[in-house]
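Forgive a beginner's question, but would it be possible to get any protein sequence you like and the tokens describing how it folds?
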Amino acid sequence: MCIRDSGIYDLYGEDGVRHGGTGNVGVPGGVDVDAIDPDVVFRRFFGVDNPFQVLDEISGVQNNQHHFFSVSAAKDMNPPKTAPVNVDLDVSIEDIFHGNSRRVHWSITDATARGEVTATTSASFEVTIPKGIENGAKITLLGKGNRQDGCSQGDVIVTATLAAHERFSRANNDLVVVVPITLVDALCGTDVVVKTIEGRDLPLRIDEVVHPQFKRVVPNEGLPVYGQPGKRGNLIVTCTTEYPRYLSAEQKSEVRRVLDSK
């Protein structure tokens, strides 16, 4: 018996020692430990009634903030992420010019910690295609991908891929259009009409010899510049020359005479 307990015994006897010098027997104003329900103490401290309760089922601790004994304590607060799902999305020139929304579809797999697939479900999401989006740009859908035990749900990465267009090709923010002309037009000049991405007819006068590197740049008739409202690229007009399939000897002689003259 320690000196303190010996003093309490001398003053209050055995009951005083048992009560710690408190309560009805001992120091006035103390706590009577006999009146304390140990189940109440356990519940108030740990937040659960059953001391043998499975850890995964403990939730009451949140009220008392004893997180060291809670479900959150048993879980990795920064678990690795499940590998992403990659989805390709074909976008048209019109999608890029006007902006659009498209629904993408993919499959979600559920797997064990060892990577064994336990279930596969279909998923879809409406993706916004902003004006001027770049070819190959990636749109990330956070937490909408595969699930695996011990990991947080993975993402879905949607890659925008420019689909082939019947009239235009893309060069950064510029649109390129190829106009067919005859050899006579290429040498002597001509008038052509180019239809813009908006559907307008744009007349152009070509009054120079059209060589293989020829191009005519029409400002502000291209694609919107991503993130810069009101700004557009250019329309680049190139030509492809259609050659005659046959020339008579007399025609060849005449062409040579004209082209060789100084």
